[in-house]
Amino acid sequence: MGFQVKNITPRELPVTEERLRAIFMESDVNKDGLLSKKELKQAFGRLGALIPAFRAYRGLHHADANHDGVVDKDELDELIKYAYRLGYKVT
Ligand SMILES: [Ca+2]
Ligand SMILES: [Ca+2]
Questions:
Q1: Which entry of 6, 8, 50, 71 is 20 to 30 Å from 64 by CA?
Q2: What is the pLDDT of residues 66-91, one digit of tens each?
Q3: Which residue segments constitute the domains of the chain, with CATH numbers given?
């Protein structure tokens, strides 16, 4: 019959923790070694989050152990674990 099977498989792979680390570090646009909420929003946007602002808020809440409003390099591991559990896929 005349219709095509819509079974397009994008080349998506589950994101690894290494990849997440790279994405978060690249999202530190002002290179101060800290991830602000704005930078987190950008990172989650790159990961394909439906509502990056919400994920930035949740991720920050989860990882920001010293409550200074930014994720530093000591807190990054927690952020990576949080993002990893969400099971993002990257192309
Ligand atoms: Ca920064
Ligand atoms: Ca912090």
A1: 50
A2: 999 999 999 999 999 999 999 998 76
A3: 13-90 (1.10.238.10)
